[in-house]
Design goal:
By secondary structure, the protein is α/β, with parallel strands linked by helices. The termini are far apart. It has a five-stranded mixed beta barrel. It is globular and about 55 Å long. Helix 7 links the parallel strand 7 and strand 8. Bound molecules: ligand LQZ7MJT6 and guanine (GUN). The site of the ligand O=P(O)(O)O[C@@H]1C[C@H](O)[C@@H](CO)O1 has 13 residues, from strand 5 and helix 9.
């Protein structure tokens, strides 16, 4: 009997079977659209669109900028499945639940996973609108373990470890049919795909806004205090967000090739004198502004 955190191998394959009954496509590439980046879904040709709430056992998206639809079809001739809307731990889902779609993608035959997100720039050299190829990550959630105090805290100068942390997505009993108990995470982000992404960006004339860096995932939904941004910078992070790492780990757990990009939608504040408030609306607006560039980049890759 399955004693771990769900979903079981059988449930994942049951969901995949249901989806196979709703679409003729058998994708090998999976794409996850970050906040405000779902427009790529409009470019999928001859699409079969399946809302999450019509898929048994599937969590639904609750965040503005995430439509909550799976899009199957063709992108430049390649058969893809695209998540137009991802799931975040801060929505109230346990971490494992946010990655059910990634497990299902693998069961559908997906071998390569392209993750996108909106992120705050921690590296002071990064500007709003920059595109960062994810070279590596920090799984803050996994490093810090499960914290019973998760949630927001509105004092001005504090480090809210509860808000920063969550739990490692691979916590719980391990089913070897998915992957190994202990996962080596060196080399999570695929070098060859990163090279390809960099080449594509340069060919599109995006070289000036192209960065490479380390993405750190925090639990959210609070944006960072100044003290937290400083902490993350000292940890070696270049950009911070509330997603992606769990998906990457689950993808790697199942042997998928993983690569990804972050759109820097705001600069995190490292100084009290210049500190300004970040909003989700601002994040979505920058996503809109860079939508065409990101879509061109995804197509070229
Ligand atoms: O889904 P992503 O990681 O792109 O979304 C980021 C993190 C929060 O969900 C949201 C904050 O504006 O954008
Ligand atoms: N944690 C975090 N996530 C983001 N997503 C988009 N911008 C940000 C940010 O500044 N911080």
């Amino acid at each position: 009997m399955w004693m771990g955190q769900g979903p079981s191998y059988e449930e994942v394959h049951e969901i995949a079977k249901t989806l196979e009954g709703k679409t003729k496509y058998r994708p090998t590439l999976g794409i996850v659209c970050g906040s405000g980046l779902g427009g790529l879904g409009d470019l999928v040709e001859e699409a079969d669109i399946i809302p999450y709430d019509e898929i048994p056992h599937f969590p639904v998206s609750t965040v503005p900028g995430h439509m909550g639809k799976l899009v199957f079809g063709k992108l430049k001739g390649q058969i893809v499945v695209l998540m137009r809307g991802r799931l975040h731990c801060y929505e109230g889902y346990p971490m494992w639940k946010t990655t059910i779609p990634i497990r299902v993608m693998k069961a559908l035959g997906v071998e390569t996973l392209f993750l996108t997100n909106a992120a705050g720039g921690i590296n002071p050299d990064f500007n709003t609108g920059d595109i960062m190829i994810i070279r590596d990550h920090i799984d803050f959630a996994g490093l810090s373990g499960e914290c019973v105090l998760r949630g927001a805290n509105d004092e001005r100068d504090h480090i809210d470890f509860a808000g920063l942390s969550g739990e490692c997505v691979l916590r719980g009993a391990n089913d070897e049919r998915f992957g190994p108990r202990f996962l080596a995470t060196v080399g999570t982000w695929d070098d060859a795909m990163n090279e390809l992404a960099e080449k594509a960006a340069k060919e599109l004339g995006l070289g000036d806004i192209l960065r490479r860096g380390v993405y750190v995932m925090i639990g959210g939904p609070t944006f960072e205090t100044v003290a937290e941004s400083r902490l993350l910078k000292n940890f070696g992070a270049d950009a911070v967000g509330m997603s992606t790492v769990a998906e990457a780990l689950v993808g790697r757990h199942m042997g998928m090739k993983v690569f990804g990009i972050s759109l820097i939608t705001d600069k995190c504040c490292l100084d009290y004198t210049t500190a300004k408030v970040t909003t989700h609306e601002e994040v979505l607006a920058i996503g809109q502004k860079r939508a065409k560039d990101l879509q061109s980049l995804a197509l070229k890759i």
